[in-house]
């Protein structure tokens, strides 16, 4: 595996009612990583740390092999970002907003920006206050994609977008990757990542609980469905997530072959979808 483009080690940020706890992950170049977790899990705090928008209590971030704490101003010019709710000066025209943005990013491609504006159905003469949420997101995407970026950080980028445009956008992301670039994509829409993410990172209660290739996760993890009579205390402890109903249980295991061997025909054991992982990783086995 190539040297990570982005490496996080032990990131910790303490707030009064929440702590991001020792978060670590590696994002290799040429890959798209999905960042998944329930609301309030810590995804946005993690992204803010990468972007230098919060002061960390502990941990290190390296980008292109260099320490972001020491070289942040230089290195972050190679990072493009699209927030979940883009905000722009209401009375400003889109062309004016672009003129204010571009000088901060060497290599900003004016021709590419104009092409993206046309592709995304946006008129540079319009004012920001005239745009819907989906249109503001489209405009933020034009600014990001026109940069000469090495890392594209996306926080819920498909919110407010219609399904057809969302599909086209996801294809653009895939096509934009090359041997020097990577994408970190935070979302709660697991279908956006199911067939596209090379890596998946799950965040729960301020902790990175799982980060690996999607292929490895689906080869090792599994969903178990069966009757409540199969749930004794050792079985409960072995599960990484558990949901019980009056009619049975659904659980998550990180030992797919062993779990199949243990239950045999007594339970249904199958490979998980990202939705399964998102739902069940958020549930304590003893809840």
Q: Could you walk me through the main structural features you see in this protein, from its secondary elements to its overall organization?
A:
The chain is of the alpha/beta class and 287 residues long. It folds into two domains: 6-216, P-loop containing nucleotide triphosphate hydrolases (Rossmann fold); 221-281, Alpha-Beta Plaits (2-Layer Sandwich), CATH 3.30.70. It has ten helices and 14 strands. The protein has helices spanning 43-51, 68-75, 94-101, 110-119, 133-145, 163-176, 214-220, 233-238, 256-263, 274-281; strands spanning 6-14, 19-27, 32-36, 58-63, 66-67, 79-82, 151-155, 182-186, 199-204, 207-213, 222-226, 241-245, 248-253, 268-270. The protein has a six-stranded mixed β-sheet, sandwiched between helices. A four-stranded antiparallel β-sheet has the order 2-1-4-5. Helix 4 (110-119) runs antiparallel to helix 5. The chain is elongated.
């Amino acid at each position: 595996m190539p040297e990570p483009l982005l490496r996080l080690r032990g990131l910790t940020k303490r707030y009064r009612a929440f702590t991001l706890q020792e978060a670590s992950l590696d994002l290799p170049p040429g890959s798209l990583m999905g960042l998944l977790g329930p609301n309030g899990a810590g995804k946005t705090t993690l992204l803010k740390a990468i972007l230098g928008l919060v002061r960390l209590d502990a941990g290190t971030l390296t980008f292109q092999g260099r320490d972001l704490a020491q070289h942040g101003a230089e290195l972050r010019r190679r990072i493009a970002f699209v927030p979940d709710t883009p905000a722009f000066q209401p009375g400003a025209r889109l062309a004016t907003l672009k003129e204010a943005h571009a000088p901060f990013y060497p290599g900003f491609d004016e021709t590419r920006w104009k092409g993206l504006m046309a592709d995304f159905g946006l008129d540079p003469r319009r004012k920001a206050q005239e745009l819907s949420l989906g249109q503001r997101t489209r405009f933020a995407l034009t600014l990001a994609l026109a940069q000469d970026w090495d890392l594209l950080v996306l926080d819920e980028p498909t919110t407010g977008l219609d399904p057809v445009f969302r599909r086209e956008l996801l294809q653009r992301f895939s096509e934009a990757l090359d041997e020097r670039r990577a994408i970190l994509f935070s979302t709660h829409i697991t279908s956006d990542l199911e067939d596209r993410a090379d890596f998946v990172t799950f965040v729960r209660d301020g902790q990175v609980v799982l980060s690996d290739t999607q292929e490895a996760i689906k080869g090792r993890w599994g969903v178990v469905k069966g009757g409540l009579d199969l749930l004794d205390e050792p079985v409960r402890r072995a599960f990484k997530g558990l949901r019980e109903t009056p009619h049975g249980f659904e659980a998550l295991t990180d030992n797919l072959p062993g779990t199949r061997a243990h239950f045999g025909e007594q339970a249904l054991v199958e490979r998980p979808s990202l939705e399964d992982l998102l739902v069940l990783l958020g549930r304590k086995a003893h809840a």
